[in-house]
Amino acid sequence: MRIGKVNIENYKCFEGRFSASFNKCINIIVGDNEAGKSTILESINLALTGVLNGRYLKNELSQYLFNYNVVNTYLESLRQGKNPSLPEILIEVFFDGCELPLFEGNGNSEKVKGCGVSFKIEFDSTYQGEYEALIAEGDDITTVPIEYYKINWKSFARDSVTSRSIPIKSVLIDSTSSKYQNGSDVYISRIIRNDLEDRERVKLSQAYRKMKDTFIDDASVQAINEKISGKAKISDKNLSISVDLSTQNSWETTLMTYLDNVPFHQIGKGEQCIIKTNLAIRHEKSQEANLVLLEEPENHLSHSKLNLLIKAVTDSCDGKQVIISTHSSYVANKLGLENLILLNDQTVTRLPDLPTETFTFFKKLPGYQTLRMLLCRKAVLVEGDSDELIFQRAYMDAHGGRLPIEDGIDVISVKLTFKRFLDIAIKINQPVAVITDNDSDYANKITKKYKDYLAYNCVNIFADDRNELNTLEPQFVDANRADLATLCDVIRVSSGTYDTAEKVSDYMVGHKTGWALKVFESDTALQYPEYINKAVVWCDEQK
Amino acid sequence: MNKNKLIIAAAGSGKTTLLVNQALAVESGAVLITTYTEANGREIRDRIIAKKGFMPSNITVQTWFAFLLQHGVRPYQSVLNDNIHSHDIGFFLSSEKSGKKLDAEGNPILFKRRPIYWGEKDFLRYYFTSRFNIYSDKISKFVFNTDKATKGELISRITRIYKYIYIDEIQDLAGFDLELIKLIFKSNSSVILVGDPRQVTYLTHHSTKYGKYANGQIKSFVEKELGKRIQCEVDETTLSASHRNNQAICEYSAKLYPDLPAPFACGCDSCKVNDAHVGVFMIKPSEVELYLSTYKPVQLRWSSASKINPNYPVLNFGESKGATMDRVLIYPTNPMKEWIGNNAYPLKNEGRSKLYVGLTRARLSSTIVMNYQEGNCIDGVTFFTFTGDAVD
User: For chain B: N or C, fewer Cβ within 10 A?
Assistant: First the structure.
């Protein structure tokens, strides 16, 4: 039993509809900051547990759950006197590989037979009258009237569900959050509770109740109560202190989990993350599946702990499903490229969707390179080390000495495999620039070679069309021909010996990386070929 | 053993007890027990809890309509009509043929002084009230058609949820209900139907489909309509003793259905009673007040229009089905009185059934409120009066 797919509509960063499907075991979501990685994990957990940020969402509905643009569109069309339909949030989780006829039906937005749950935050039509009155008054409405909203949580059979009735128990492990400084951590008590059999749960709450009773019956507590009662003659009623006996499952909220006598929330975030993950993964109830949602595990974890965690996750592949969001190319690479879900502009791509030969190619690479391109904001692909150094320097000169990577721009040296990288880039709409030589044949080596990619806005090819300047070296010399002496200075050759462009160029070709490193490290700024300058400008453009 | 079974037996013979015991004996797999009335549903629940101490999580007790709404209508509610994909479909208990065409004021439009009805082509108005409550007389047709449209997915889902499907008061199901029973028979689930052809007090709808099987003819339905591939065993002998009624009540009520085997009072120790006022009696209306205060019977009537004493408990005949009481006081309708006076009187099916149900509720005494002539006698009934001794 596992989740096969999720549909999200109008929730937080997702404007309109977003849809992603998942592998049965490990899934790694990678993508930009703000791309919605955490929102995916959060919404899956919400639809399966009703819990958001450690609290039941039911009484904490707020406008901020809605996508900003959707809310604005609604308010704007209200202002124009139209009668827009109220925004709604939908999170739909499709189960997979399971026999759960109770959850089967076509009560989902795709109107197909499926097995799963649908979690909606929608207008409660019993308030239709109030809402109409509100609109009719014509006051400037500046927020979504959230007080008229309700949660509609149902199975695909259109039957109401609760977190107890949903057989997939999800655990969200979010080591980045520091929301639980006080009291017991909801998530850990949930994990523990889910792991207990009914019988054990009953015993635990009985033991807890007994403890409370013992407290009240204790002689000293009774003495104190008599004293309080005697002093506080506010009315003829009795005042006393006691333990809260009212809530049904109060052990969950009041019992604290300890690790070597240290309260759980006091131990390091990294350790917390590992323990929670292990608890969740080693869940023993056979009839219930477990879904572990792991948010950016690389935070707070040392390299060796991270390795431990990854090992725990990879070893757990029997019936447990794991969805991880990460920024770390290390994590992603360790867990397997085939499990990658690339998130970009509200669309997802999986590497297996790529052309077979491209996928096989990337499977052979160490993986870092691929992930670097996927995880950066913009990627600049260059042929070799000297191109990389020169581009970086050109960028630094234009940006007060900042390296491109500091602005989320990764410069990747890909030898002759540009097209492979472009195959991925067009899949995920990743802005990518190619800086390349024309190799004396611009028509074939550039125009023809890349013509299929230029249809995509995200792909930009930077090359010079003067065939006589076939590689970086003659291009670079040409850019500096007005002041060859300075160039010679920087690359530490005698301007007397190398007194023509051809000579300098020939020298540079013979000392490929050497000259480029010298340019890169020099205090003197030089001129750069036009196609490189253009690439620098492209880096600054909004995508 | 055949997985499908129809058990036919008289009132008080332990039909419901049998279902409860069967359900409690199931070790793994979910059990559905469904019945027509809320009251009988409660009775079943109470008996399970009395036996077991709690409601086992694998047993669901639901009325037939609640079951149809939850598992028949909602899971695939939009397959027949896409417009109702997101509606909250509710239920409307219709006491007459539903879907009348109404004018702007809400009055029925008449044609030759008869109401006219929406046809199936007007899908929404045919099946639903304006608030999307599905009509009780069409719900099983809706379910049947939806199942067909989903190529059996709907029934498959139900029978994968419930490995055991037990239906009490089967005589109340009719029309498309019977089609659904047929489909469930075909599945892998074990089915037990129990019922009493004498106790047709409700019919789930007024459909003309399978009209000839409407009046307690479920046995002939099972024998004639299932076809060769569906098997169902009919059992009319296992439950032949009444554990509720004494011999006098058994014998008198049997006169209503002379063609069916008469049950006999079970003679076992646990069924024996020790009471002075036992049997079938008749009292004059003038003595009702005193009778009520002396014996505290439950009053049984045709409908809320019947005159009774509001200070004592009262039930309609239909509502009382399935219940056991110590004593009942029956307010017969005029046709019932005709029959009581002369057993050859052709009392109609509904009246016959309801009188039978009323008479067979009591463990001790069933008493009929009706004027009688001293000196006359009615076979099986004892005239009772407080002014002198009982006269036979």
Answer: N
pLDDT of residue A276: 75
Give the whole-angstrom CA distance, residue B355 versus residue B316. Answer: 11
Question: CA of B175, closest CA in chain A: separation in Å?
Answer: 25
Q: Which amino acid is at A160?
A: S
Angstrom distance (rounded) from CA A264 to CA A308: 19
By Cβ distance, the residue of A111, A113, A157 closest to B74 is A157
Contact A107 B75 (CB under 8 A): yes
Q: Which of A86-90, A280-284, A405-409, A527-531 has the lowest mean pLDDT?
A: A280-284
Residue B309's nearest CA partner among B287, B327, B326, B324 is B287
* Chain B residues close to A102, C-beta within 8 Å: 161
Q: Residue A373 class from Cβ within 10 Å (0-12 exposed, 13-18 middle, 19+ buried)? A: buried
C-beta separation of B88 from B108 below 8 A:
no
**CA–CA gap between residue B247 and residue B355 (Å, rounded):** 17
**Nearest alpha carbon to residue B205 among B64, B322, B67, B341:** B64
Q: What is d(CA A279, CA A158) in angstroms, rounded to the nearest whole number?
A: 33
Query: Cβ of B78 under 8 Å from any chain A Cβ?
Result: yes
pLDDT digits (tens, 9 = 90+) for A268-305: 777 777 777 777 776 655 445 578 888 888 877 777 88
pLDDT (tens digit per residue) in A458-508: 999 999 999 999 999 999 999 999 999 999 999 999 988 998 999 999 999
Mutation for B interface: A92, A113, A120, most B CBs within 10 A: A113
pLDDT in tens, B20-37: 999 999 999 999 999 988
The H-or-E segment that residue A151 falls in is: strand A149-155
- Residue A74's contacts (CB-CB under 8 Å, 6 or more residues apart) are A84, A86, A87, A144
Whether residue A156 and residue B157 make contact (CB cut-off 8 A), yes or no, is no
User: Which residues in chain B come in under a pLDDT of 70?
Assistant: 1, 202-208, 215, 388-392
pLDDT at A52 > cutoff 70: yes
pTM (two decimals): 0.79
Tokens of B277: 């006022």
> Cα B346–B347–B349 angle (5° rounding)?
115
CA A267 to chain centroid: 25
Rounded to whole angstroms, the Cα distance separating B325 from B328 reads 7
| pLDDT tens per residue across span B46-65 | 999 999 999 999 999 999 99
* Mutation to test the B interface, candidates A9, A90, A98, A106, most B Cβ within 10 Å: A106
Position B183, amino acid: L
Q: Which residues contact B354 (CB under 8 A, 6 or more apart)?
A: B201, B302, B317, B318, B336
CA A194 to chain centre: 26
Kind and range of the H or E run holding B186? helix B176-186
Half-sphere exposure of B146 (CA within 13 A, CB side): 29
Q: List, in order, residues 6 or more apart from A337 with CB less than 8 Å away.
A: A351, A362, A363, A367, A370
d(CA B300, CA A401): 97
Residue found by looking up tokens 């090992």 in the block: A311
Query: Predicted ipTM?
Result: 0.82
Helix or strand or coil: residue B281? strand
Distances (CA, A) of A342 to A46, A349, A424: 22, 5, 10
What residues 217-236 of chain B have any CB closer than 8 A to a CB of chain A?
none
Residue of B nearest to A107 (CA): B75
Helix pair angle (B349-359, B334-341), 10° resolution: 70
Q: Tell me the pLDDT band of A183, cut-offs 50, 70 and 90.
A: very low
Task: Quickly list DSSP for A264-299.
Answer: GGGS-HHHHHHHHHHHHHT---SSSEEEEEEE-TTT
